[in-house]
Specification:
The protein has three domains: 4-134 and 303-323, Rossmann fold (3-Layer(aba) Sandwich); 138-299, Dihydrodipicolinate Reductase, domain 2 (2-Layer Sandwich); 346-427, ACT domain (Alpha-Beta Plaits, 2-Layer Sandwich), CATH 3.30.70. Helices cover 37% and strands 26% of the residues. It contains 14 helices and 18 strands. The chain binds NADP nicotinamide-adenine-dinucleotide phosphate and L-homoserine. NADP nicotinamide-adenine-dinucleotide phosphate is lined by residues 10-15, 43-46, 49, 79-82, 85, 103-105, 130, 134, 187-188, 190-191, 301-302, 306.
Length: 428
């Protein structure tokens, strides 16, 4: 087999890592696929920009079509990001019979079914392992490793930037804005970090994971997402005192034909393995009906971990090329599922209230919970932080999301409650 030629779209954080691995691991790669793998052309926005890697300038182009329509190129590796042009370029690459490897979760969460359908029609591979949880091979694990099981729950810390921020806030008392800036400098955050901190990046990844895990069609709009911008140092410190860590968790659950997928800051019991996943690390906890509990852990973002997954996908494509079996991935979305309603989504909750500090207030609070059939697991009144009222921390037993919303509505009307400071889902 002649050497396999890659057209690399993007030479930023991930693209640079791809070049380093393809060049640095050449012998290992060649031993696995019995052919050499070569990066033939590279797309960038600005050819004159200074790069932190030595690149033959003749390989750089600003014209995606020069790469995609080059008959010598076998595999397109898309690590430029975005949705509009990336989609157009990938569809054209497939039209030209080229295989595609991408790290683009935005694109796969929104247009994955269309791209995968086109790939099958054209007999091409589209692999996207790096799109979720950077260096953790979770996509292949869900498709192949759990093919014999029925997955009931997937819980993931799937955004490295927010886990990095929450960890630094928890362990060092660092300020949110300072740590976000650090995460950007380290290449973890998206070009616009709003999608990281507001939970959209994690929602996109959970769309991909739940579709694969439940073998069902899950749309991004089915995933409710809340980010970490409202998480306070006070919440984090109270959580720790009670034996919890605050984590941005993606939670996907399936019961028969009902599913729910959400992303929210969650208080996780410190004894749960996912609570000790810190820094830029990601983890995906998978509970299968037969296998029970499993968890996968590794770096979720950054140049080399992400590039490892990208190049592993390239190796998978080349192995398929050798066997002549590209484009033969089975259709995995065969289960027909419905979204759970808020009455059907159950969990425990943490609530921090600022209330009037006088006789009878606790009884009024308890009456609201009782009248709405929400059972309280524990109540704590930390020593008064100021003279204007008291803080109350309540942890409920498992209740429906709808019942908890009714409790919040009642507290908003109750004069004794001065402020609902925070409400968190509780796991573990
Ligand atoms: P990045 O550092 O911003 O790099 C993007 C690269 O693409 C740059 O080289 C840029 O060219 C080029 N580019 C962007 N738009 C272009 C256009 N319209 N035409 C030509 N070139 C264009 O991005 P990244 O962090 O490497 O992320 C790339 C992809 O991987 C994204 O989809 C991201 O979500 C995903 N991802 C990233 C990570 C991570 O840790 N960073 C992890 C997993 C997945 P210039 O260099 O000339 O500006
Ligand atoms: N911005 C993403 C993160 C990159 O922080 O997890 C990896 O997808």
């Amino acid at each position: 087999m002649k050497s396999v030629k890659i057209g690399l779209l993007g030479l930023g954080t991930v693209g640079t890592g791809v070049v380093r691995i393809v060049e640095g691991h050449q012998e290992d790669l060649a031993n696995q696929v019995a052919t050499s793998i070569e990066i033939a052309k590279i797309l960038v926005k600005d050819r004159t920009k200074a790069r932190n890697i030595a690149i033959d300038a003749a390989k750089l182009t600003e014209d995606p079509w020069e790469i995609v329509r080059d008959p010598n190129i076998d595999i397109i590796v898309e690590v430029m990001g975005g949705i509009g042009q990336s989609k157009e370029v990938i569809l054209e690459a497939l039209e030209q019979g080229k295989h595609v490897v991408t790290a683009n979760k935005d694109l796969m969460a929104l247009h994955g079914p269309e791209i995968l359908t086109k790939a099958r029609e054209k007999g091409c591979d589209v692999f996207y392992e790096a799109s979720v949880a950077g260096g953790i091979p979770i996509i292949r694990t869900l498709i192949e490793g759990f093919s014999s099981d029925r997955i009931k729950k997937i819980m993931g810390i799937v955004n490295g930037t927010t886990n990095y921020i929450l960890t630094k806030m928890s362990q060092e008392g660092a300020a949110y804005a300072d740590v976000l800036k650090e995460a950007q400098e380290l290449g973890y955050a998206e070009a616009d970090p709003t999608s990281d901190v507001e939970g959209l990046d994690a929602a996109r990844k959970m769309t991909i994971l739940s579709s694969l895990g439940f073998r069902s069609k899950v749309d991004l709009e089915d995933v409710t997402a809340k980010g970490i911008s409202a998480v306070t140092q006070e919440d984090i410190q109270y959580a720790k005192k009670l034996g919890y860590e605050v984590k941005l968790l993606g939670i996907a659950e399936r019961q028969d034909d009902l599913i729910s997928v959400s992303v929210q800051p969650t208080m996780v019991k410190q004894s749960h393995p996912i609570a000790s996943v810190n820094g830029v690390f990601n983890a995906v906890y998978v509970h299968g009906e037969a296998v029970g509990e499993t968890m996968f852990y590794g770096a979720g973002a950054g140049e080399m971990p992400t590039a490892t997954s990208v190049v592993a996908d390239v190796v998978a494509v080349v192995k398929n090329m050798k066997l002549g079996v590209n484009g033969r991935q089975a259709h995995v979305s065969y289960n027909v599922t419905k979204q759970k309603t808020d009455e059907q989504i159950a969990s425990k909750y943490f609530m921090l209230l600022h209330v009037e500090d006088r006789a009878g207030v606790l009884a009024q609070i308890a009456q609201v919970f009782s009248s709405l059939d929400v059972s309280i697991e524990s109540v704590m009144q930390p020593s008064a932080p100021n003279r204007s009222g008291a803080e109350l921390i309540i942890i409920t037993h498992s209740t429906s999301k709808a019942a908890m919303n009714r409790v919040i509505d009642e507290f908003e009307k109750l004069a004794a409650v001065q402020k609902i400071k925070s409400v968190y889902r509780v796991e573990g």
